Amino acid sequence: MLVFAHRNSSPLLPSEHEKLQAALHSNRPVRHWRSAEQHTHLISSPHQLLPEDRFEHAPYTIGDWVIAGFARLDNRPYLISELGSNTSDISDTELLAQAWHQWGKDGLNRIYGDFALIAWQLSTQTLHIAVDHLSHTHLYYYQDRDNLLVSTLRAPLLTHIPALRTLNTMALLTLLTARFPESDPWQGIQHVPAGHVLTLDVHGNQTLTCWWQPPQQHSIYYRDPRDYSAALKPAFESVVKSLLRSSQNVASTLSGGLDSSLATAYAADFLAREHKELVSYTSSPASPHDHLYRRPNWDADEWLLTEELAALHPNIRHIRIQNHESCLLNHLSAQHAASWTPVRNTANCWWLQAIAGSAAAQSQRIILTGGKGNASLSYAGTGGLARLIPQGHWRWAWQHLVAQTPCSIGHFAKQISHLSGLTPLLKRQLNRKTVTPDGLMPAWLATPWRNKIDFVWPTKPTFEWKDRCDFLLRETPVYKPDFLQQFGVLMTDPFADRALIEQLLTYPPEAFVGLGFERLPARLLGDGLVPDSIRWRTRRGEQAPDEGYWIMRDKTRYLETWQRLREHHAIKQLFDITAIDASLMRQTSALGERLTASSLHRLFDICLFIENAQQQWQATLSD
Q1: Which of 102, 129, 126 is nearest to 118 (CA)?
Q2: What is the pTM of this model?
Q3: Could you give the dihedral angle defined by the CA atoms of residues 149, 72, 282 and 364, in that order, rounded to the nearest 10 degrees?
């Protein structure tokens, strides 16, 4: 956890120092660097996750620089050698600080891993803040004529700058559409984009530089699609090994999907060689009403599949997470208080918090996940046809089409539609259509806002290579679970590893399809470690499938909460209270339907966030 504060007009008062530190809510040691002459204060509360963290003593004063940050580096030996360090008794954050001092902006491309950096140059009074390739840890910032603040959390900014306590109404209401807003829920708070470094001086000048330049086109081709998997295996093994470096125990999230199964299986295999245990958590529905979330080709409960994987690895301690009685509304408010942002993905809200809390209680500090898998290693290969057919690779194109096409006319038509990328004529014939997804509730908005918030989603007839790269490289959204910092755990994703992504971007779309299956490299990598029931599975798994049941079970609590929320002036301004009343008065079984439940939880997420923000910060709404 980090805070940097500078004020041009006067030094920060001791009381302001105390408030900034208190806003971090850190239960770990806190270190300070202050300059009364430069009116500057830097606070660092380092994590205790890695063995080398015992050497951590940031902020570091190195020459003309004062530097602090967060780092979990994958190429420590390389950096120690290149920097000429005489010892390995050095924290990852100090390595990051030395790299910045020696190489500056140009050296960021030599650093592999997760990091957030704050570097203050004393002679020029210039601040440089940088984040890793996917911004695993955000740096939020605010600057005006007198103040410059940066933090890994929003609370210190809201504490120090009362002018920031205005809610971004458009961003909040966009959440109701199930999209990610492009801006922060607080008017005026910004964050450093992924793969960038931002330079700010005390006169208000800002320079944003993109330091990460990933491959822009595919350049590696194999005749046999199995060769891609063989080439990827050493890289994936290296990624997982690097993520197992921990000062205490390691855990993983585990579903019946390829991504979390691969991460868990490889981690268990490596830990078994060291006679260590891996704790794996699987979220499973506790509801008897399985009709609420039954969908074709989707599985609601993946517990039996994950049990098969755990049986292959005796060192896995498999823990089942079920919500028998906890009301989701409590978890929403808890996450608001920790992150000061709406949760947005309410389906994952409960089990994320349950797993983080359980892991922290059992001294598990690193939790492996598979969040970026669908966009990286287990990408489906969409877009290959539009590349293969113009080049005359008819046999490969046919194999590619067969592998991507389940026994469904609808899916077959969808795959054929990707050929629209071949000619402008087909593109014109296949005009984009627009739809409002099922379950979204435009009628819940107050009349002045209905025309401002777009509930219509475009459907794209093409999915080109650029679309795939944009999806893969898209940073972690602003609405991320910063609340995990309070548990002292770090969720790490091997599929978001920079070296792995750079290798994957050199492969064409058809590399991910073969033997009659999409996602072929990921399936082949599981050989011997992941059960065939998971490796060759074509069904998908629901996330929090009993979300609707929670509403049915706790309906009285939801109605009581709404009766309180509906009296708030701000909520009356934004929503059609009568329309929401009518929706909540529907039969209990209707409220528990999956899509309706998701919309209701997004509604409560927004309204509870507004209520909590007004109580804590006396927040107002933007126009």
Answers
A1: 129
A2: 0.90
A3: -100
Please tell me whether residue 35 adopts helix, strand or coil conformation.
strand
What distance in Å separates the CA atoms of residue 33 and residue 106, rounded to the nearest whole number? 26
132 CB-contact burial (10 Å; exposed 0-12 / middle 13-18 / buried 19+): buried
Residue type present at position 615: Q
pLDDT of residue 386: 63
For residue 469, give the amino acid letter.
Answer: C
Q: Which amino acid is at 326?
A: S
Distances (CA, A) of 338 to 4, 120, 151, 355, 481: 19, 27, 14, 16, 9
112 vs 132, 160, 213, 601, CA distance in Å?
8, 33, 13, 38
CA 108 to chain CA centroid, Å, is 22
Series of mean pLDDT values for 10-residue runs along the chain (623 residues)? 93 91 85 92 90 92 95 94 88 95 95 96 96 92 95 94 94 87 91 94 93 85 89 96 92 94 97 96 80 73 94 97 90 89 83 88 91 84 65 67 53 46 38 54 88 70 51 59 74 93 87 83 95 91 84 92 95 94 80 82 94 95 88
Instruction: Tell which phi-psi region holds residue 186, choosing left (phi > 0), alpha (psi between -120 and 50) or beta.
Output: beta
Question: Distance of CA 323 to CAs 191, 550, 596, Å?
Answer: 34, 8, 19
Place of tokens 């490289």: 473
DSSP 8-state secondary structure symbol assigned to residue 398? H
Helix/strand/coil (H/E/C) assignment for every residue in 187-254: CCCEECCCCEEEEEECCCCEEEEECCCCCCCCCCCCCCCHHHHHHHHHHHHHHHHHHCCCCCEEEEEC
Residues contacting 255, CB < 8 A, separation 6+: 261, 282, 283, 302, 306, 370, 541
Provide the token pair at 54.
């015992």
What is the C-alpha separation between 57 and 28, in angstroms, rounded?
Answer: 12
State the Cα–Cα distance between residues 214 and 506, nearest whole angstrom. 10
- Cβ proximity of 176 and 452 under 8 Å: no
Neighbours of 273 (CB within 10 A): 8
Closest-CA residue to 31 (of 41, 19, 16): 41
| Class of residue 179 by CB neighbours under 10 A (exposed 0-12, middle 13-18, buried 19+) | middle
Residues 6 or more apart from 600 whose CB is under 8 A from it?
A: 551, 558, 583, 584, 591
- What CA–CA distance (Å, rounded) separates 471 from 439? 24
Predicted confidence at residue 310, as pLDDT, reads 97
Distance CA 490, CA 247 (A): 12
Q: Give me the phi and psi of 15, to 5 degrees please.
A: -65, -35
E-state strands within 294-381: 298-299, 316-321, 364-368
Of how many residues is the chain composed?
623
Exposed (0-12), middle (13-18) or buried (19+): which is 615, by Cβ within 10 Å?
A: exposed
Q: Look at the block and give the residue holding tokens 């475009």.
A: 458
| Separation CA 516–CA 538 (nearest Å) | 11
